Amino acid sequence: MASPAVDPARSIPVLPSPDIKATRDFYRDQLGFGIVGPEMDEYLIMRRNEMEIHFWRSNDRKLPEVSSCYIRGGEVPALYAEFSARGVEKLSPFTVRPWNMKEFYVWDPHANLLKFGCAPEEV
């Protein structure tokens, strides 16, 4: 059994997706995530470095419009530069918000909101 220091507990978002294949394609082709585990029609696990997001198939197309996750860390400025260079659609400006976090947002094809942020001094 791995020690807690080697394998710390993590929080992993699980977002709804009305189309698992479209979700897979977007996160793989636009955001550079890889597929983890077997490909299934009802569930998808995507990972990029330490970022991991799970998706469950939902027939309710409104759910992604009210779902989001926050990704924070020093890698965020480089991700913004990469996503901008790739021409990722629905990419917000990278700016300091009133709560003193420098953030940018990406909406996936189903309207799940990914918020990326870092402290301004990390830029």
Describe it.
By secondary structure, the protein is of the alpha/beta class. The chain has a single domain, classed as 2,3-Dihydroxybiphenyl 1,2-Dioxygenase, domain 1, CATH 3.10.180. Helices cover 17% and strands 31% of the residues. It contains two helices and eight strands, in the order βαββββαβββ. The protein has helices at 20-29, 76-86, and strands at residues 14-17, 34-35, 43-48, 51-57, 68-72, 95-96, 102-107, 113-118. It has a four-stranded mixed sheet with strand order 1-4-3-2, covered by helices on one side. The mean pLDDT is 94.
Number of domains: 1
Helix content: 10-25%
Low-confidence stretches: none
CATH level-two architecture: Roll
CATH class: Alpha Beta
Q: What is the 3D shape?
A: globular
What's the number of extended β-strand segments? 8
Strand order across the largest sheet = 1-4-3-2
For the termini, the CA-CA separation is 37 Å
**Number of discrete helical segments:** 2
Protein name: Bleomycin resistance protein
Family: Belongs to the bleomycin resistance protein family.
Keywords: Antibiotic resistance
InterPro entries: Bleomycin-R (IPR000335), Glyas_Bleomycin-R_OHBP_Dase (IPR029068), Glyas_Fos-R_dOase_dom (IPR004360), VOC_core (IPR037523)
